[in-house]
Design goal:
heterodimer, A: alpha+beta, 4-stranded mixed sheet, 4 strands, B: mainly alpha, two-stranded antiparallel sheet, about 70% helix, globular
């Protein structure tokens, strides 16, 4: 899968991972793919809820060790 | 009651308060219950799920409180929220400062304690700064500022802050019945509003948060207001609520307890008993830690950089000053205070929401500058 942009949100806590994800997606073109890496477990439900509400597509979410990875296609 | 029995009961009350706080910490960790998060979710994505959790918790706590009052188990006129003075400016300004601070510091007082339990060292720094700022606003530099400014503006209302008390006096109806009816209407309304939403209902986690946190607050009212009520202190012969710093009836709150925890650590005296505030701080941290270890989500985390550090310190300072000025935090005024239907609590919560919205706008502005 081609990743068009990477966002490092490690070390940030709510509400920043969500807000940074939201801001980054507005700067991307529809169809482009963003990969977000966060360290806050709360980012999993928060970013998933945002993606659904905002009409984007969550391609993948996984927890690897201390990192929470979100791959999102901009709607 | 003799002094030996008094001391034994005091110990039982503090252990019960600790157990209730453990439950709060574990439930909050498990469900991601967060007042700041609830406001942020509405602001950033129009999602009301976590606000429904919060509303449901208030509703359950309110119904529990006034059910106990109706049964004569607790006396609503004796809570710290029942005063005849409405310090409306302190509540509004303090609330707004607290709300701003909790956004900058990644969460309110209770979320800070939960995050400490999860291994977040940023939140440990927030705890120390918030406790220091709170202490200064209780007894130090900012206490003088508070007392000479916002605290001078108040309205006297009889018979007190709680709405059921006014209605009861106005209508000439029994206070217990008035309180219960109002709690069922308002609290029941909040619960219905929460569970009306299919998305909210579909998650057991949401229901656990709303019911669980609400039950925790109601339980603490029972522990302090019923179990801990002694009609005659063996030495002073005055009525007293065991385990509380001022001897008055209260439930969970976290701003001044953080200050009292620092005070207990610094001026440690094994001959002095602990208070509700100190045991609840440890209880929440340990409850969150226990669940974080159980579900393997515990991990050490530190600051991202200079700006992250500065914002957390500023946020913690705002929370400490604001929380004491407002007479409580998102839990103290928000959950515990609102469960009594206190007018000052309603004003403080409105201030907290306004401050949080300002904080979210500030965070967005900072992001746009990057």
């Amino acid at each position: 899968m081609q990743i068009d942009k990477e966002l490092d949100a490690r070390g940030l806590n709510c509400p920043l991972p969500l807000m940074k994800t939201k801001k980054t997606l507005t700067e991307m073109q529809p169809g482009q793919v963003l990969r977000v890496v966060a360290s806050d477990a709360g980012s999993m439900p928060d970013i998933l809820a945002f993606v659904k509400k905002a009409g984007h597509e969550m391609l993948e979410q996984q927890n690897i060790g201390r990192e929470y990875i979100h791959v999102i296609r901009r709607g | 009651m003799d002094i030996t029995a008094f001391q034994a009961l005091q110990s039982q009350v503090l252990w019960a308060a600790f157990a209730v706080s453990l439950a709060f910490g574990a439930i909050a960790q498990r469900t991601n219950f967060c007042t700041m998060g609830a406001i942020s979710d509405i602001y950033n994505m129009g999602s009301w799920t976590r606000m429904r959790m919060w509303g449901m918790a208030v509703g359950v706590a309110m119904i529990g409180f006034y059910l106990m009052a109706w049964r004569g188990l607790i006396n609503p006129a004796q809570t710290i929220y029942a005063s005849a003075q409405v310090l409306w400016l302190s509540a509004l300004v303090g609330g707004a400062l607290f709300g701003l601070g909790m956004v900058l510091a990644s969460g309110c007082g209770s979320k800070t304690l939960v995050r400490i339990g999860e291994g977040n060292l940023k939140s440990l720094v927030v705890f120390f700064v918030m406790g220091l700022a709170a202490f200064a606003t209780m007894r130090g530099m900012t206490a003088l500022l508070r007392g000479s400014t916002v605290d001078r503006v108040f309205i006297d209302i009889k018979p007190g802050n709680a709405v059921p008390a006014w209605l009861s006096a106005m209508l000439g109806v029994d206070a217990g019945t008035t309180g219960l009816v109002l709690a069922l209407l308002v609290g029941g309304g909040l619960v219905l509003w929460a569970i009306w939403d299919a998305e909210f209902r579909s998650s057991g986690k949401n229901l656990l948060a709303g019911l669980g946190i609400g039950a925790v607050i109601a339980s603490m009212w029972w522990v302090i207001g019923h179990m801990g009520f002694v009609p005659e202190h063996p030495e002073t012969m005055e009525p007293v609520y065991l385990g509380t710093a001022g001897g008055s009836m209260q439930a969970l709150s976290f701003t001044s307890p953080m200050a009292r925890t620092l005070e207990w650590v610094i001026f440690f005296d094994p001959s002095k008993t602990l208070s509700l505030g100190v045991v609840s701080v440890f209880g929440v941290v340990l409850g969150a830690l226990a669940y974080a270890v159980y579900n393997r989500s515990f991990h050490w985390e530190g600051f991202r950089g200079t700006q992250d550090t500065a914002l957390h310190i500023i946020g913690a300072t705002c929370m400490g000053i604001g929380g004491v000025t407002a007479g409580g935090c998102t839990v103290g005024q928000g959950l515990s205070g609102l469960s009594t239907l206190s007018v000052t609590s309603m004003i403080a919560v409105a201030g907290i929401v306004l401050g949080a919205l300002a904080g979210l706008r500030l965070q967005m502005w900072l992001l746009m500058r990057e």
